[in-house]
Specification:
By secondary structure, the chain is mainly α. It contains twelve helices and no strands. It has a domain of about 200 residues.
Length: about 280
């Protein structure tokens, strides 16, 4: 809906600006704004966090989807939990049971079943693939960096700092490429509403809930839930836009949910002591 009125850079810049204003208001009203203190050793993690996402991720995804179909893009984005699982194991020693790993693989297979074309094909463009891979690797970098911060700061504070830095990073791009066109547009409630919704539900609520989940479920288990994104998108499109779901779609949903269930069972995650130190404290 937002793309009908604004370009990708403008949308990202506007939603980040609105998210910063809204989160500042919430933190101020709750009395938390004055108590925000970032440890010196964590500053580099906050910079990396914002550099990976929203900056690199949104650039890769937004421009990548101009070269590949949304179907191909969804398949590539669905590999994020797989790469994040490998990263969590290598860097933090986060290990799950065999059933959990089987569930992650099954969930990924379900996404592929859900979004494949009827003839089993996917559209392909090497430039688009590389840009989408940039988004995937950026998301994995974001997840691994978030793992250092999730247990030490309130989720909303993490997201607020992330959005402020992201806004600064996008400002030069917005001024150079989109400002002149932005000033010529007539901004209405219809055009601004999708951006406001993105700021509230995507840039604040979703990121805050994900940060909370990482600190409680671990990186691997939290990431598997992202495979539900195409499922919920299709369901809302069915309910709100009257789009038709096929038997293949329903089969994919069942496989994704089954994989999601398997990925979450069998007790708590196992971590090495160093990882427990990194994520075991709350501010």
């Amino acid at each position: 809906m937002a793309n009908e009125f604004y370009g990708p850079i403008t949308i990202i810049f506007m939603r980040l600006a609105l998210a910063v204003v809204l989160a500042t208001l919430v933190l101020w009203l709750s009395g938390s704004l004055k108590r925000i203190k970032i440890k010196k050793e964590d500053r580099k993690y906050f910079l990396l966090l914002a550099f990976f996402e929203p900056f690199l991720y949104f650039l890769g995804e937004s421009f990548g989807l101009t070269y590949v179909s949304s179907t191909t893009g969804s398949v590539l984005i669905a590999t994020i939990p797989v790469f994040a699982t490998v990263g969590a194991w290598l860097l933090f020693g986060e290990r799950l049971s065999f059933l959990n790993y089987a569930g992650i693989v099954l969930s990924f297979i379900g996404v592929i079943i859900f979004i494949l074309n009827p003839d089993g094909s996917l559209s392909f463009n090497i430039k688009g693939i590389l840009l989408m891979l940039l988004a995937v690797l950026s998301a994995v970098g974001y997840n691994l960096t978030l793992r250092h911060l999730a247990g030490n700061y309130h989720p909303l504070i993490i997201v607020h700092i992330q959005n402020i830095i992201g806004l600064v990073l996008f400002l030069p791009l917005f001024l150079i490429f989109d400002l002149s066109g932005f000033l010529k547009l007539t901004h209405t409630l219809e055009s601004l509403t999708p951006v406001i919704l993105l700021a509230i539900f995507a840039s604040i609520v979703a990121f805050s809930l994900f940060a909370y989940s990482v600190s409680n479920l671990g990186l691997t288990r939290s990431n598997v839930f992202s495979n539900c994104i195409p499922i919920f998108t299709a369901l809302f499109a069915f309910l709100l836009l009257n789009e038709i779901l096929t038997v293949q779609n329903y089969a994919g949903m069942i496989v994704v949910i089954a994989g999601l269930f398997l990925s979450q069972i069998n007790g708590k995650r196992k971590v090495i002591p160093e990882a427990e130190i990194l994520t075991g404290h709350t501010a």
